[in-house]
């Protein structure tokens, strides 16, 4: 809450009470107040825009020692400031064609630090504390709500635009990386001499159906199968597919990597710890 000192009579006045003070105590005088915190003078209606001032922590902090007081975060104050921004936007806009009475109500709201943000509480507050007729209070609220929805839509549109730009930038980056990546080496059309049938040069069979074999083995076990047992069974099937009794060390390593990869890619299977089941 901002407090002022009347420069005519010296009385301390809360901001919402300044208007009443010059209608009663200093009646007929030109408004002339100074802020009790920052000591700045305000003439006429200038004080209305003085919504927030420096705190005592800021006022008495030792600037000579380079100390700056950290202001506590106040969510309600931030919401109230946003509310004030809406009120100021309405007064500055020519869209609403405000009547003199409604404009006067908005101008009065600018000098209040605790404007309610719910319709029922707002209408009660404006009607009881600011002596504004209920019908006029409802008109003021309707305009506030319209401007609020307008700002929300603008914010959502801005967020959507930013998101679309990020997605487009990511897609462009991926496209550039793909274009700059070196072409993949083509596998040899024929197996090297002495290699097992249907085996390509990296030790992995080109036509071994990993997914079908994994699903077939796991499907035979209603309660699932342990991961190590599944690996051994598929290992035997793979060796048989290559027509060899035992895989070489290189082939075994390749098999292990391919087994782990295919198991992760198998959407029809579900791995729970060491147990593999058909996904439900």
From TrEMBL:
Keyword Cytoplasm set for record: no
Coiled-coil stretches noted in the UniProt entry, renumbered to this chain: none
UniProt keyword terms in alphabetical order: Coiled coil, Metal-binding, Nucleus, Repeat, Zinc, Zinc-finger
InterPro entries xref list: LYAR, Znf_C2H2_LYAR, Znf_C2H2_sf
Region entry Disordered, spans: 170-198
Signal sequence bounds: none
GO MF annotations, alphabetized: DNA binding; zinc ion binding
Intracellular or extracellular location(s): Nucleus
UniProt domain Zinc finger C2H2 LYAR-type: residue ranges: 33-60
SUPFAM superfamilies attached to this UniProt entry: beta-beta-alpha zinc fingers
Predominant subcellular localization, coarse grouping: nucleus
GO annotations of cellular component type: nucleolus
Record GO biological process: negative regulation of transcription by RNA polymerase II; rRNA processing
Name of protein: Cell growth-regulating nucleolar protein
Organism: Drosophila rhopaloa
